[in-house]
Amino acid sequence: MLPEAGSLWLLKLLRDIQLAQFYWPILEELNVTRPEHFDFVKPEDLDGIGMGRPAQRRLSEALKRLRSGPKSKNWVYKILGGFAPEHKEPTLPSDSPRHLPEPEGGLKCLIPEGAVCRGELLGSGCFGVVHRGLWTLPSGKSVPVAVKSLRVGPEGPMGTELGDFLREVSVMMNLEHPHVLRLHGLVLGQPLQMVMELAPLGSLHARLTAPAPTPPLLVALLCLFLRQLAGAMAYLGARGLVHRDLATRNLLLASPRTIKVADFGLVRPLGGARGRYVMGGPRPIPYAWCAPESLRHGAFSSASDVWMFGVTLWEMFSGGEEPWAGVPPYLILQRLEDRARLPRPPLCSRALYSLALRCWAPHPADRPSFSHLEGLLQEAGPSEGCCVRDVTEPGALRMETGDPITVIEGSPDSTIWKGQNGRTFKVGSFPASAVTLADAGGLPATRPVHRGTPARGDQHPGSIDGPFSWGPSSPAPAAWQSAATHPPASTGRSALPPE
Ligand code: ATP
Questions:
Q1: Burial class (CB in 10 A: 0-12, 13-18, 19+), 151
Q2: What lines the ligand 1 site, CB under 6 Å?
Q3: Which of 147, 150, 203 to mutate to test the pocket of ligand 1 (most atoms within 8 A of CB)?
Q4: How many domains does the chain have?
Q5: What CATH number has the domain bearing residue 352?
Q6: Which terms in the GO cellular component ontology are assigned (predicted)?
Q7: Do 398 and 247 touch, CB atoms closer than 8 A?
Q8: Domain shared by 111 and 152, yes or no
Q9: Atom of ligand 1 nearest to the CA of 129
Q10: Is residue 417 situated within a structural domain?
Q11: Does residue 75 lie in a domain region?
């Protein structure tokens, strides 16, 4: 059974003092549905539901606090206070937050149950299922949305699920950023539903792993996504939030060239002087994405989000492969503390991999901040160019005049570069003279295209880039040219970067 909206204050109150197990007995056996009902509850009544005297004292203190500041401390207000009612007509119970003062901005709203109709299932997570939906606005206009409904188990959505669901609501309702998934509002129905912006193209992970004939994502687009992600994370960090679950599965595609950070169920405010959040109890955590201090001490911070950003970068350039696949979770921490790092994926330039390694610095303080990363990504990103002559040399990346070329790797001293043909999606080596860089004023490419320093630990047996010694007189091995859809399966995922 779902807690009624009108009694959610009780659940929050009890959760705050670690007495959530008494929610149902208090509600059903003592018939308490409003704070003032406690005036009629005697200690014997609480004894009768098994609540000890120390716990009763905690409850009494909490009730005093609740009453001394009903608006600022009432949990329903706290959670829903940022919502402006969408409709004027009374669609909610009389004790609903409809009567609460409208906040400044009032961008988010309570949505009547009948205004949202759910369609096809998009996916499911730990505590909710997500459906495609249509939200009919008071004006009659219909907006496509995603509706996340709180999963209701046989014993109702008690404890963690409800807490995480509502925490996700309370975090999302205050966020407004072009690369953060937008929450439209909340349906206080059964089940509770979050009405969110629809990302019609699904998760980035699903897109990365989509089988042929879906074309792979171009390297240039992946770099754009990384910049969007760093911007969104800098925004979250500036608001004192730590995401804790950054991964391509939690990045949604709102359009072919726009990602949105989603899944705020694990987001927590950074507390304390050290700006980190320490986990209170055992919870499932995404081991392979986590920083060593998160795995060892349960400590999360913007710096541990930066570590996860590095793993997300790795996923993107590995075609959505699972990081540390085959390594048991308990060994991952040991590997990380032994300085093992995920190897450089073939599509990832040395400069970008070097950035990932900085995100994976053992000490959180040595990792770049997200706002710093935004600039670093700009510098490390590939150059864009255009093919100025057909390239047909054996072993070279095939290109035709006019093909857009992303230069992944180049060097001032080398006549051979590595890049991706935007028309064919193929990656390989080619003569530098065949490409004009977009920012070189129409001249053939003769200058360095890489501003980053070479990455440590980027040796990757079987990777598609060669030692850059190939020239027209010494053809490149055919293996250098490969489709980005099929990155070679990575076996030794724990490459040790040389010191
Ligand atoms: P968890 O919540 O357990 O961490 P999750 O991210 O998979 O995991 P949800 O946030 O419940 O769980 O999302 C489930 C799936 O629904 C996602 O994988 C995604 O594919 C899809 N989905 C979620 N939100 C949207 C949205 N706004 N638009 C389109 N699809 C969505």
A1: middle
A2: 122-126, 128, 130, 146, 148, 181, 196-199, 202-203, 245, 249-250, 252, 262-263, 265
A3: 203
A4: 3
A5: 1.10.510.10
A6: cytoplasm; membrane
A7: no
A8: yes
A9: 11
A10: no
A11: yes
Q: Which of 245, 305, 458, 465 is catalytic?
A: 245
| Ligand 1 atom 30: residue of nearest CA | 202
Pocket probe for ligand 1: among 116, 120, 121, 122, the residue whose CB has the most ligand atoms within 8 Å is 122
Same domain? For 177 and 317 the reply is: no
Q: Which residue has the tokens 């990656």?
A: 427
> Running DSSP on this structure, what letter comes out for residue 429?
E
Q: Are residues 283 and 219 in the same domain?
A: yes
Tell me the residue range of the domain where 167 lies.
Answer: 103-197
Whose alpha carbon is nearest atom 17 of ligand 1? 123
42 appears as a binding residue in the annotation: no
Residues 274 and 299 in one domain: yes
- Give the separation between CA 147 and CA 195, rounded to whole angstroms: 5
- 350 within some domain: yes
Listed in order, strand segments (DSSP E) in 243-376 are 251-255, 258-261, 268-269, 276-278, 299-301
Indicate if 188 and 108 belong to the same structural domain: yes
Q: Which of 166, 197, 228 corresponds to the end of one domain?
A: 197
Residue 244 lies in a domain: yes
**Is position 465 annotated as part of the catalytic site?**
no
Q: Please report the atom of ligand 1 found closest to the CA of residue 265.
A: 2
Domain end marker among 143, 173, 197? 197
pLDDT values of the chain reduced to their tens digit, one per residue, 499 residues = 445 556 777 888 888 888 888 887 887 778 787 787 787 788 888 988 899 999 999 999 898 888 776 443 334 344 444 444 443 333 333 333 332 233 333 336 788 889 999 999 998 877 779 999 999 988 889 999 999 998 766 555 555 667 777 777 877 888 899 999 999 988 888 888 989 999 999 999 999 999 999 999 999 999 999 999 999 999 999 988 899 899 999 999 999 999 999 987 767 666 544 445 455 444 567 899 999 999 998 888 999 999 999 999 999 999 999 999 999 988 999 999 999 999 999 999 999 999 999 999 999 999 999 999 999 999 998 999 999 999 999 999 999 999 999 999 987 788 999 999 999 999 999 999 999 988 654 444 444 444 333 343 333 322 333 322 333 233 333 222 333 333 333 322 232 222 2
- Answer positive or negative: Cα dihedral of 341, 343, 345, 346: positive
Answering whether pTM is above 0.90, one says no
Whether residues 30 and 110 fall in one domain: no
Among the listed residues 163, 162, 164, the one whose alpha carbon sits nearest the alpha carbon of residue 190: 162
Residue of 192, 252, 308 to mutate, ligand 1, most atoms within 8 A of C-beta:
252
- Do residues 367 and 307 make contact, with C-beta atoms less than 8 angstroms apart? yes
Query: Are 264 and 337 within one domain?
Result: yes
Considering the domain architecture, whether residues 244 and 278 belong to the same structural domain is answered as yes
